[in-house]
Specification:
about 350 residues; mainly beta; Porin; 2 domains; 12-stranded antiparallel β-barrel; 3 helices
C-alpha cells in the first residue's frame, strides 16, 4: 500500500511541476499530435521544420529476408498571422519493397485557417490541402491507399483546452473530420477512391514531455470492395514528445493497426489490402522565429510651437553668450568683438 501511495504522489507532482513545450507539429505538418491536427496555429512569424522516419518489419514464412517498410517525410509550417498558416508535406523516400532506395511519395500543400468562433477553451479551424501525385508507385504495400491523380481535401478541426479549467490535469482534446476527394476530375461521394478522414486524440504534459494518444483512420466513402468498417486503414497511436538538446523537439510514437486482415477471406486488390500491423515512428522538430527587419529612421524634429518655454529661454542664453565674449575680449585686450542685440534683431 505504501508503494501505491508513493506512486500516486509522484504521479500528481509530475502534473503540478510540468513545463510545457510551446508547440508540436504533426507528421503532415501543422500543430497537433502525430496525425491529429490541432485547431491552434503555430503563431505569427513562427517557422517549424520537422522530419519523421517510420519503420515496419515483418517476418514471413518461407522468406529469406525480412519484409521492410520504411518512410521519410519532411514538413514545413509557417505562421503568416494569427488566423492563417501554410503547410508543406514532402515525402522524399517511400519503401517500394523492390529497390534499395525507394521512390518519393506524394506531396501535400495546404493551409490552416483559424475560425472567428474560437475562444479561450474551444478552438475551431479549417484545414485545406491539395494532394499532388509526385510518387512513382501508388500501390505501396502496407500503406494507406493513394491514387494517381491530383486530389483535394477539407477538414474541420476542434480543440478543447482544459489547461485553465483543470490546472492539476492540463489536458487538450482534438477532434478532426474531413473529406478527401482522391481525384478532382470525378464527382464527390460517387467515386470508389474518395475517403472520409477521421482523427481524435488527447495529450497531457508531464514535466518537459508531452504524452498523447490518438485514433486516426481513412474510411472509404463508397467502395464496393470494402464491405466492413474494420477493413479500412485505421490505427491507434501512443507516443510522447520531449524537449531535447539543441532546442529540438523529439517525437517517439508506436502505431497499432486496427484494420482486419482482409487477405484471409478476400482476394486482395488496390483497395482491399493488408496494412502494417505496427509501425515505429521517430521525429525531429525544430522551431524558428522569423525576425522582421527594422528600418532606421531619423528622429523627429521638435516643433518650436510645441515647446514655447524653450523659445523664451533662448534670448537669455544668447545674452549670456555675448557677455562671455565681451569678458574674453577684454582680457585679451581686443575690443573688436561686438555683442549681438537680440532685441534689435527681433524687432527687425
Amino acid at each position: 500500500m505504501k508503494k501505491q501511495y508513493k506512486f500516486a504522489i509522484f504521479f500528481a507532482l509530475t502534473f503540478l511541476l510540468n513545463q510545457h513545450i510551446n508547440a508540436q507539429t504533426t507528421i503532415f505538418g501543422g500543430r497537433g499530435l502525430l496525425r491529429t491536427q490541432s485547431a491552434e496555429l503555430v503563431g505569427v512569424n513562427r517557422l517549424f521544420i520537422n522530419s519523421y522516419f517510420s519503420a515496419f518489419l515483418l517476418s514471413e514464412k518461407n522468406a529469406n529476408s525480412l519484409t521492410k517498410d520504411y518512410g521519410l517525410s519532411i514538413n514545413v509550417t509557417l505562421g503568416l498571422n494569427k488566423h492563417l498558416e501554410v503547410i508543406a508535406h514532402l515525402k522524399p523516400y517511400q519503401d517500394d519493397q523492390r529497390h534499395i532506395w525507394g521512390a518519393p511519395g506524394d506531396t501535400q500543400l495546404g493551409v490552416k485557417i483559424r475560425s472567428p468562433f474560437s475562444g479561450s477553451m474551444v478552438h475551431t479551424a479549417f484545414r485545406l490541402f491539395a494532394n499532388l501525385p509526385t510518387g512513382r508507385d501508388f500501390a505501396v504495400a502496407y500503406e494507406p491507399y493513394a491514387s494517381r491523380e491530383v486530389g483535394i481535401a477539407g477538414m474541420g478541426l476542434i480543440t478543447f483546452d482544459f489547461t485553465e479549467v483543470f490546472a492539476a490535469l492540463p489536458v487538450k482534446t482534438h477532434l478532426n473530420f474531413g473529406y478527401f476527394d482522391q481525384n478532382i476530375h470525378d464527382r464527390f461521394f460517387l467515386n470508389l477512391e474518395d475517403q472520409y478522414l477521421l482523427a481524435a486524440g488527447l495529450k497531457f504534459p508531464v514535466r518537459s514531455a508531452i504524452f498523447y494518444s490518438e485514433y486516426s483512420a481513412e474510411i472509404f466513402a463508397k467502395n464496393e470492395f470494402i464491405t466492413k468498417y474494420s477493413m479500412n486503414s485505421q490505427r491507434l497511436t501512443q507516443g510522447f514528445k520531449f524537449l531535447g538538446p539543441w532546442n529540438l523537439i523529439y517525437d517517439v510514437a508506436l502505431d497499432l493497426s486496427l484494420a482486419s486482415d482482409v487477405n484471409r477471406n478476400n482476394a486482395p486488390n488496390e483497395f482491399r489490402k493488408q496494412y502494417a500491423d505496427w509501425k515505429l515512428i521517430l521525429g525531429l522538430n525544430y522551431p524558428f522565429t522569423i525576425q522582421k527587419k527594422s528600418h532606421k529612421s531619423n528622429p523627429p524634429t521638435r516643433d518650436p510651437q510645441k515647446y514655447p518655454s524653450k523659445n523664451r529661454v533662448q534670448p537669455h542664453r544668447q545674452n549670456i553668450l555675448d557677455s562671455m565674449l565681451e569678458i574674453e575680449s577684454s582680457l585679451d585686450g581686443d575690443n573688436s568683438v561686438e555683442p549681438k542685440n537680440n532685441d534689435d534683431s527681433q524687432d527687425n
